[in-house]
C-alpha cells in the first residue's frame, strides 16, 4: 500500500465517522411506523441462543414480504440477542454502523469510478471524498438510518456499493488483460447479499449496463472480450425487457384502483413524475421544511393536467434523460449520475402497487450528486468549488435539524397512548416537521375516530385518511 492509498484510507475513515457523528444525534429515539409489525410485535426475532433453528426462523419472519429479506431480519434478531431485549437505540446503533461502512465503501467505489473516467489520482481522490461526505450527511439519509426497519434498504445499498466496487476492479483487470474471475465472484456474492436484504438490489446489472454505456464503453484489452461484453449486455437487456412486458406489466397492471390503494396503474405512473421531481428538489435543496417524511396525503395525479404540475414534471424528467444520453460521451460522469437516479427508482416508481413516496428510496440514487460537478465546471481540476460550498454550509445544518429531534421521539408507546385518547397528532412539529411518526398498523382502541394531522408543506395537503380507513399492512419498500 503506497502513501497515497494510505492517505485516502485515513481520509475515507474520517469522512465516514464525520457523517455518522451527525446521524448519531438522533440515535436515542424510539421505534416508529413499520417497526411495530416487523420488530416490536414480532416474537420470532426474540432469540435467546444462536442455534440453527432460531436463526432460520428469525430470518424468515418478515410477514409482510412472505419470508423475504432474510439477511435484514436476521440482523434484527442478532440485535435482540446482543442487547437482550427490544431497545430502539441498540437497533439504531447497528443502522448507524451500516451507514458508516457504506460511506467508507462509497468513497472507494467513487474513487475507482472517477479514475476510470480519466480523472487524475489527486482529483479522483478529492472528488470521491467530497461526494461520499455529501452523501453521508445528506438530510435524506436521516429517514433511512434512524428508521430502524429501513435497515433493509441500508444493508441492500451497502452490498450494492460493494458489488459496484468489485465490478470496477473486474473491468480494470479486463482492460489490463489480467485474470478477473475473482472480482466477478466477489461482485456476484455482494449482489446476492444485497437481494437477501431487499429485493430492489436485483437491478444491479442495470447499473453495470449504464456504466458500460457511459464511462467504461465496453472497453477491454482483447477484442473478443469487448465483443462478448456487448453481446452479453444486449442479451440481458432483451431478457429484462421481455420479463417486464410479459410478466411484470400483466401481473401488476390495473385499470381499477389497486386493493387498499386510492390509485390505479396510470395514476401511479403519472404521480411518480411529480414524486421524482420532488426527490430531485430535496436532493439539491435539502431544507427540513421540504422533507416531512410522512407523505400519506401526497396528492395523486388523476391526469396530465390534474394537477398541472404533472405534465411539467414529466417533461422535465424526459429532458433530463435526453440530456444525459446526448452527453454520455462528452460528460460520462454526469450522464451516469442522471441515469443512476432513474435506474435507482425503476422498481419503486413503476406499476407495482407500493406507497407513492418514501424518502429512503433515494439512498443510492442520492449519490448522483456527482452530476453537479461537470455542469458547474469545465475541467475536473475545478470540480470541488461548488459542492464544497454547499457541503460546508447547508447540508450539515439541515441534517442536524432533522436528526437531533429524533432522539426525543416518543415512539410506538407514545403513539399508542395518543391514539387511545383522542387522535394521533404529530408532536414536535414546531421543531422538525414529521418527527415523530405514529406506528403503522396501530389502531385506535376507543370508539373515537382519530385523524392524522398533516405537518408538511401546504401544497401537499389533501384529505387526511381516518385510522380505520388504512389498508392492511403491505410491503412498503
Mind explaining what this structure looks like?
The protein is an all-alpha fold and 477 residues long. It has one domain. 57% of the residues lie in helices and 0% in strands. Helix 5 runs antiparallel to helix 6. About 13% of the residues have low confidence.
Write the layout of secondary structure elements.
Elements: H1 3-23, H2 35-40, H3 52-59, H4 70-83, H5 88-116, H6 121-137, H7 141-145, H8 151-176, H9 181-197, H10 204-216, H11 223-252, H12 265-284, H13 309-326, H14 332-344, H15 372-376, H16 385-392, H17 394-403, H18 411-421
Helix pairs in contact: 1-5, 1-6, 3-4, 5-6, 5-8, 8-9, 8-10, 10-14, 12-13, 13-14
| Shape type | globular
> Would you count the extended β strands for me?
0
Instruction: Show unreliable segments.
Output: 412-473
Q: What does the average pLDDT come to?
A: 80
- Counted by DSSP, the helix tally is 18
Helix fraction by DSSP (H/I, runs of at least 4):
55-70%
Radius of gyration: 22 Å
Distance between the termini: 40 Å
Tally of individual domains? 1
**Estimated share of beta-strand residues:** under 5%
Structural class: mainly alpha
Subunit organisation of the chains: single chain
Biggest pleated-sheet summary: none
What is the H/E order? HHHHHHHHHHHHHHHHHH
Amino acid at each position: 500500500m503506497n502513501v497515497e492509498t494510505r492517505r485516502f484510507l485515513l481520509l475515507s475513515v474520517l469522512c465516514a465517522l464525520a457523517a455518522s457523528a451527525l446521524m448519531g444525534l438522533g440515535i436515542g429515539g424510539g421505534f416508529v411506523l413499520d417497526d411495530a409489525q416487523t420488530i416490536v410485535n414480532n416474537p420470532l426475532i426474540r432469540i435467546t441462543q444462536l442455534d440453527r433453528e432460531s436463526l432460520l426462523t428469525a430470518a424468515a419472519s418478515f410477514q409482510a414480504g412472505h419470508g423475504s429479506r432474510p439477511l435484514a431480519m436476521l440482523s434484527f434478531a442478532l440485535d435482540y440477542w446482543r442487547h437482550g431485549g427490544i431497545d430502539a437505540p441498540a437497533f439504531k446503533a447497528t443502522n448507524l454502523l451500516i451507514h458508516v461502512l457504506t460511506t467508507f465503501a462509497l468513497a472507494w467505489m467513487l474513487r475507482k469510478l472517477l479514475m476510470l473516467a480519466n480523472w487524475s489520482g489527486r482529483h479522483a481522490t478529492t472528488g470521491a471524498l467530497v461526494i461520499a461526505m455529501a452523501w453521508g450527511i445528506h438530510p435524506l439519509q436521516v429517514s433511512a438510518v434512524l428508521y430502524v426497519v429501513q435497515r433493509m434498504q441500508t444493508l441492500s445499498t451497502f452490498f450494492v456499493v460493494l458489488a459496484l466496487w468489485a465490478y470496477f476492479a473486474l473491468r480494470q483487470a479486463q482492460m489490463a488483460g489480467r485474470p478477473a474471475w475473482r472480482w466477478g465472484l466477489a461482485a456476484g456474492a455482494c449482489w446476492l447479499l444485497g437481494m437477501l436484504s431487499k429485493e430492489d438490489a436485483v437491478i444491479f446489472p442495470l447499473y453495470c449496463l449504464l456504466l458500460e454505456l457511459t464511462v467504461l464503453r465496453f472497453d477491454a484489452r482483447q477484442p473478443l472480450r469487448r465483443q462478448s461484453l456487448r453481446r452479453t449486455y444486449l442479451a440481458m437487456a432483451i431478457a429484462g425487457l421481455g420479463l417486464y412486458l410479459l410478466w411484470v406489466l400483466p401481473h401488476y397492471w390495473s385499470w381499477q384502483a389497486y386493493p387498499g390503494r386510492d390509485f390505479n396503474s396510470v395514476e401511479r405512473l403519472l404521480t411518480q413524475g411529480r414524486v421524482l421531481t420532488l426527490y430531485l428538489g430535496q436532493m439539491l435543496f435539502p431544507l427540513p421544511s421540504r422533507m416531512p417524511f410522512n407523505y400519506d396525503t401526497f396528492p395523486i395525479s388523476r391526469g396530465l393536467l390534474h394537477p398541472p404540475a404533472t405534465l411539467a414534471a414529466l417533461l422535465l424528467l424526459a429532458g433530463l434523460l435526453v440530456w444525459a444520453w446526448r452527453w454520455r460521451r462528452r460528460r460520462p460522469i454526469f450522464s451516469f449520475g442522471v441515469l443512476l437516479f432513474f435506474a435507482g427508482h425503476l422498481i419503486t416508481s413503476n406499476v407495482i402497487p407500493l406507497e407513492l413516496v418514501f424518502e429512503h428510496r433515494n439512498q443510492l440514487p442520492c449519490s448522483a450528486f456527482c452530476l453537479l460537478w461537470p455542469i458547474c465546471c469545465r475541467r475536473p481540476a475545478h470540480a470541488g468549488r461548488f459542492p464544497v460550498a454547499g457541503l460546508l454550509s447547508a447540508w450539515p445544518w439541515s441534517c442536524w435539524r432533522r436528526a437531533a429531534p429524533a432522539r426525543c421521539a416518543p415512539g410506538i408507546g407514545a403513539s399508542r397512548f395518543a391514539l387511545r385518547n383522542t387522535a394521533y397528532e404529530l408532536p414536535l412539529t414546531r421543531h422538525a416537521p414529521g418527527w415523530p411518526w405514529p406506528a403503522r398498523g396501530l389502531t385506535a382502541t376507543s370508539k373515537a375516530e382519530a385523524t392524522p394531522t398533516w405537518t408538511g408543506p401546504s401544497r401537499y395537503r389533501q384529505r387526511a385518511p381516518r385510522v380505520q380507513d388504512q389498508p392492511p399492512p403491505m410491503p412498503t419498500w
